[in-house]
Amino acid sequence: MQYAHDPALLLARFQFAFTVGVHIIFPAFSIGLAAYLAVLEGLWLRTGRPVFLDLYRYWIKVFSIVFGMGVVSGLVMSYEFGTNWSIFSKKAGPITGVLLSYEVMTAFFLEAGFLGVMLFGMNKVGRKLHFAATCCVSVGTLISMTWILSSNSWMQTPRGYTIDPATGRFMPADWLAIIFNPSFPFRLVHMGLAAFLSVAFIVGATGAWHMLKARKAGKISSEPVRVMFSMAMWMAAIVAPLQILAGDAHGLNTLKYQPVKIAAMEGDWVSEDHAPELLFGIPNMKTEHTDYAIRLPLAGSLILTHSLNGKVPGMKDFPRDQRPPSPVIFFSFRIMVALGMLMMLVGLWSLWLRRNSTLFTNPVFHRVALCMAPAGFLALLCGWVTTEVGRQPWTVYGLLRTSDSVSPVALSSMAFSMTAFVVVYVLVFGSGLGILVRMLRRAPQEGEHDTPPGHATEILAARMHPGVIDPSTGKGA
Amino acid sequence: MMDFAYWLPIVWAVILVAAISIYVVLDGFDLGIGMLFALERHPDRRDVMVNTIAPVWDGNETWMVLGGAVLYGVFPGAYATLLPAFYLPIVLMLLALIFRGVAFEFRVMTRGTGREGMWNAGFMAGSAIAAFCQGAILGGVVQGIKVVDGAFAGGPLDWLTPFSILCGLSVMCGYALLGATWLIWRTTGVLEESCRRWAARLAVGLFIGIVAVSLWTPLLHAPYLRRWTDWPNIAFVAPVPVLVVVLGALFVMGLRRGHSRGPFLCALGWFFLCLSGLGITVWPYAVPPGLTLWDVSSPPSSQFFQLIGTAILLPIILTYTIYSYHVFRGKVTETDGYH
């Protein structure tokens, strides 16, 4: 097994995981936030209530930062397939490369083309066209997600291809079967909901922070703060339960097409009916046993097959060299599920408080909502670790091994670039995070609507100089 | 089917060269403006420089993503050999573009915190390094890479030669010229005057670079020389150097007579001619000296499927890209609310 011992391969994998792990945060953030901005601007146009414009202007500053970081970290990805996984690119490029090209042409250009108008153009194109630009950007983020998840799902559940015997290349035979491969719809729904949920919890935590601050100062929190908090909690209450249903359906789909991934996620070694669910344990790949297991009887069968006596797979059904590393995904999966449950509880709690009209006055709930700020993104990352590490030891599931996909790049180059990526990413995205936190600590204000919507210069000014703008007048200090 | 397999790669080579040209032109002036930060120290004028490109740079950089994606989907054999061969300059370029890209926002967001200087430096250095790497990679492709059994088989620093360094420096000079002429078009006053001075010097630098690369390239491989000197090729390729000189004359005239758009268009013309010249030189190789376009192509079913989408989508993309430029047309000044 070259797989476990080749340091260049391990570095290539770690580097890819690191860069894509950092990257994925930003598109997910953009997907959720662009949709939120489109809703805010739509509500403002429809109701004329200034609070929606205040919130739009508040969050569009965040969006411009997040989107920029998404663009630059995404550019890396479009070349990293070739730098790190050249054999994979050569063999699967006729399929995955084409899907990526469609993503660029249908989504990236749309987003980037209308982003300028969205950020800078309100006084130049008028309200309706500006709203159209916001919608284009939002639709662009959704189209982008669709293509990249189709490509990713094809790597998990490949369909619609033939393999050229001479070169080992994947040849497209049926594009519809490739795009709509069996795991794609489930992954798309699960990821889309994850993006919305992640942003809902960031917006909710921002609202909670400003309500706690207002309370400390003995003031009543402002209308924009209450509106954003309420909208975020509606989102949590509705989407979190849906997400758990979607996750369950995705799990059943994985059981059908990638049973060994499920066995590794569950730490199950022997296939059995009436299977328990392991609440905790430490799977040991060498001894083929899960140590320190805490079992919940029958729950394993119930969760995976929706019946008490359903048969669940075990890792011993599969050769050793086809099993994904269970210790990683056993935990990433459990952290994701636990965070999902917590998010659902917060959503349900918000419904209860709303009924009692204490949503805006319960400080304990606000503290919980604040702590839950990163919950969505953490769950999203854990979910990605689960599905991608769970795909191992393959890049194209069951057909092309990761160890056979890697580029012929010298270990020294790989080590240099790994170091450079870590240093640059920590510096750049660390600074970005700092800037975002500073922005969000500044409360959204009522009164930014004093500026007529025709004067986008004020948006610009506020975007460019958040520190020197007096938000109550919208004029530069 | 044979015809299909023959013509599709040619069509795609043309589209790819067009996409790369659009990228070079659009992001070229962005990166050039970044490098001109080295010459313009005044904070207000720096803001004007950035504001001329702030609404459009995202879209400009997307052409580079398209280039990568098209190479990956249509010429995976080239993608899989070129990227490992140019591993270090590509990684360096990507990291430089990260600094450049975030600096647009960060340099303003950190204003007054003492860290703005760092992001201004990042904007400048990121632009310069990215430009150099792009030129060096281009030069590296032209000089050829070592391929065995369809995979890169050379060392990590094979690309680094006097020729690729010359190409890197020429591209830096050329991008700075694009940036300066763009600013002549889009700005007024002191900044425009400075740009006219810079443009004159940068044009001299680029002209020397073009001559040097043009004389050096045919010496790299015998077929390159034959491409330019054999009859009847020479009849078709001779206009390229002639046009370079003609554009040079037009450029000098435009600059002297105070034209606002002329110098930029001449600089664009130069880039177009250089890329055409390089295309003519390496044709029909995708990875010189060994792999042709057909060697590195994905199957016709991939290329055809992608061509349908491209034929529909590319005109739409160009339309709204032009619309976006149209919205932000006109001179940008220090007092029009962009800072």
Structure notes:
The complex is a heterodimer of chains A (477) and B (339). Chain A is mainly alpha-helical and 477 residues long. Chain A is built from 16 helices and eight strands. The longest helix of chain A has 41 residues. With 339 residues, chain B is mainly α. Chain B has one domain. In chain B, the strands form two sheets. Chain B has a two-stranded antiparallel sheet with strand order 1-2. Chain B is globular and about 60 Å long. Chain B starts with a helix and ends in a 12-residue tail after the last helix. The model of chain B has no long low-confidence stretch (mean pLDDT 88). At the A-B interface, helix 3, helix 4, helix 15 and helix 16 of A face helix 3, helix 4, helix 5, strand 2 and helix 14 of B. Chain A: InterPro entries: Cyt-d_ubiquinol_oxidase_su_1. Chain A: This is Cyanide-insensitive ubiquinol oxidase subunit I. Chain A: It is a multi-pass membrane protein. Chain A: It is found in: Cell inner membrane; Cell membrane.
